[in-house]
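To: structure desk
From: M.T.
Subject: fold request, one chain
Message: Could you run this one when you get a chance? Sequence is below, nothing fancy, just the single chain.
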Amino acid sequence: MGKNKSGSNEKKGNSNKAAAEQSESKGKGSLKPATAVNVRHILCEKHSRAMEALEKIQGGQRFDKVAQEYSEDKAKGGSSDIPFGVLYSDRLEAGGSLGWMTRGSMVGPFQDAAFALQPSTIDKPILSPLVKTSFGYHIIMVEGRR
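Reply: Done. Structure tokens follow.
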């Protein structure tokens, strides 16, 4: 019987996403369904730079300070290619804050990760794993849900 259950290894790779979706859909866990999240992120073009930023946060540095140091963006003010419609300089000054974002206003993988996170604070953030989008690698945290 143990071997039949060992086939569940395949599900373990998606356990975080499945658990978040299950929790969100049931509203039974600590996450209740939400239509918007107050989100911060750090965007890095290179995986290695994103990993450095992640290690700094996991080492106890504040999310906003690491965002100011590590977050990157090719877009200059006024470009339609700006991720999430927020000017890069504004995001840096705000420690990676994108503010309240609604479903459908974010790219798919970013949105999935953001809505799966529990709210936390910049000094003790609950982080997403690295999220790859067309913009680069994101480290995401959520400060609120509604």
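Reply (cont.): Residues 1-28, 75-82 have pLDDT under 50 and may be disordered. Let me know if you need anything else for the meeting.
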